[in-house]
Amino acid sequence: MKVILTGATGMVGEGVLLECLESPLVQRVLSVSRRSCGRTHEKLTEPLVADFRELGSVEAELTGGYFLVRALYPVLNLFFPGMALRDVARAMINAARLGAPKPVLEVADLRELAAR
User: Fold this and answer.
1) What is the mean pLDDT of residues 42-49?
2) CA-to-CA distance for 56 and 75, rounded, in angstroms?
3) For a surface tag, which of 13, 19, 32, 60 has the fewest beta carbons within 10 Å of its beta carbon?
4) Overall pTM > 0.85
5) What is the DSSP string of 16-59?
6) Kindly report the CA angle at 21 between 40 and 2, in degrees rounded to 5?
């Protein structure tokens, strides 16, 4: 699977990025950000953009069957309290791999996906 990740420089995004890089299920990670996450890995491509409304040359890279992950800690913490960051990241990968069981995921859904 190929993943587009935004927010890789934040707390949740970094956890998702590390989980993606470690996972044998993920072949490529495209981390689109305003600044570098400071990591190098053979799976990681990191185009930097100053303004997300003006993607320019990066836009061409955003095609080709990617699963999009937007890591927002305040949202995750609010809606999924008490879940470990690694479990949230693993659940996101499994949701992409297996398909989400329903359009809106609840804590129980993420816990189940994280366990797969």
Assistant:
1) 91
2) 29
3) 60
4) no
5) HHHHHHH-TT--EEEEEBSS--S---TTEE--B-S-TT--GGGG
6) 105
